[in-house]
Predict the structure.
Amino acid sequence: MALAALETIRDQFPILKETIRGKRLVYLDSAASTQKPDVVIDTISDYYRHSHANVHRGVHALSQRATDQFENARRLLQGFINAREDAEVIFTKGSTEAINLVAASWGRTFLQPGDRIMLTEMEHHANIVPWQVAAQQTGAEIVVVPILDDGSLDMEAMAKLLDERVKMVGVTHVSNVLGTVNPIAEITRMAHAVGAKVLVDGAQALGHLRMDVQAVGVDFYTMASHKMYGPTGIGALYGRRELLDAMPPYQLGGGMIRSVTFEKATYAALPDKFEPGTPNIADAIGLGAAIEFLSPRLEEAHHLESDLTHYSHERLSEIPGLKIHGTAPGKAGTISFTMADVHPHDIGTILDSEGVAVRAGHHCCQPLMARLGVAATARASFALYNTRDDIDALALALRRVREVFGL
Amino acid sequence: MMSELYQDLILDHNRAPRNRRVIEHPSHEADGHNPLCGDQIHVYAVVRDGVVEDVSFVGQGCAISTASASLMTEALRGRTVEEAEAIFKRFHAMLTDDAAIDGFPEDGLDKLQAFAGVREYPMRVKCATLAWHTLHAALAGDGRVSTE
Ligand SMILES: Cc1ncc(COP(=O)(O)O)c(C=O)c1O
């Protein structure tokens, strides 16, 4: 990305002008949550100033305006992931709720004793625990695909484990620890060949790479707005209509009903069936603005973030005692590392004192931490507003860690 | 600023923790766990006639939690249980309460003052107090504590 273009992108993120403990903010925690551009912030406040009313309910003009904007956001998301129809996009609180929806609704309806749910060793707790509960409730069992030492999925092991007993394959698109980009098209082909459905956790992917749900052929794809420049508290589930139609509602209430007597209810059509209650209207509209911001810049962002990933691997490899966890080819801009015996929390605090924001901990991936043989890692992660200067600041601050600990 | 948190005293007790050992027949013991960072600690104490005659720990953690455990064992050995609990209260206040910044002027406890810098990093208070919470649970007869 040309320097001028980068400057204008950074200018659109007001928070990047903050100083932390007197130092320039170097924000390297976008995998936890990205910062928000002006257009997203303004869209949300404009909505509340000029358009707010409840959706799908009123006969008055404001309700219509709110409904139009809310449904337009759904269409923006549909277009962004190339879903066949907008009704296949269900708004949720985030990726976590989207996975819970599928595990509870699809899982409890279609899983039977002896069925298998296939997960991978690099899954986030959000894509493990809901399936554990579904397994307990249905008598299904969980099988786990291991990773290789570079952090890529062991595809041979997956092929061996995959047979007709497997009814669901749950896999993250991009690992929030290793940065690994999983071959979800290949996984989907393999799963469909044995009759299994595929749920891809897209929380870490959509802000960084182009996804086409029809081309890949996934059955379910989950999204997290706050990791793709949109607001918190909103996300979505994509599901193929045929599957969503066959699934029972996840939560029950108003707005998802066709008719109710005290004896029985018939449910509304998609997507309303899965969206009872008043939805998070403002943030859905904010997510729409984020997609309009991101989509035209996505390829450029991908290019920039690949450069930063390369550059940071180079710079961090120069630091004695530093170990990077996850070196799979084509990995995304998420760099987990440990440093000799220094606890990642101490690394995180010292970096913070230098104005460098990274995350330290198990990243909601305790099984993966066990596989890596660490209690925790420090993690730097990138977005389209980061620069090589940010990586240099990280490398410098890491040298400070070595100094403090006398390494 | 950083030198205030990672002082030589803390770094020294992290590198070479005192009383990191098993006590074979403790009168009290408890497990402590900080699920956020995976810190694990086991604290042992020998209490006789209301006096903490010996106190030790084993476990893995960050520099702040390891040094805090180490300095805790030094500070509390030979104190009565009431004194130990009072020191824990003051230690906690020093990390969290702006009014309590001059936590430990007196001899024998002044080293605990090294943790005053943690106040600038509220996310790390749990690290600095894990061993203390665990000892508190051991003395109260609860075998397990989590700082969640
Ligand atoms: C891989 C992965 N899955 C799921 C989630 C949860 O997403 P959300 O915050 O939208 O619930 C996260 C984010 O923490 C994640 O990194």
About this structure: Chain A is about 40% helix and 15% strand. The pocket of pyridoxal-5'-phosphate is lined by residues A 94-96, 124, 126-127, 172, 176, 201, 203-204, 224, 235 (CB under 6 Å).
